[in-house]
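Entry 14. Ran structure prediction on the chain below.
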Amino acid sequence: MDDMLNDLGDYIAGKAGEVVIAWEVLFGELSIVTTRDGLNSLMKLLRDDSNCLLKVLVDITATDYPERVERFEIVYNLLSLSHNHRARVKVLTDENTPVPSIVPLFSAAGWFEREVWDMFGIFFSGHPDLR
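Output, structure tokens:
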């Protein structure tokens, strides 16, 4: 399984280019770090590419590392039912810089982004309703 995920990580990094900052296979899941600006293009690639088909957004959460300049790590957990694998996408931000909303790509993101907004105060630009 790890060999398949390593191959997938290489494939995604090659297709996405500079949008992928880093990736690794950890605990049987592919973990990808991306930029705020590249988040939507990476998520579209992961959802639509026939080698990925990560069409299920399981959840979005965040972690706060107050000692870091970009203290928040937003984590998107994805599942491919077609290929039976999971991926985790991470993007970093600070308390003042918004993260682009992925609601246009995954409608379920609406509730998850609202929860992250409520719990951490992370703003999602382009979100249809953060109240």
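Residues 91 and 128 are 20 Å apart (CA to CA). Will compare against last week's run tomorrow.
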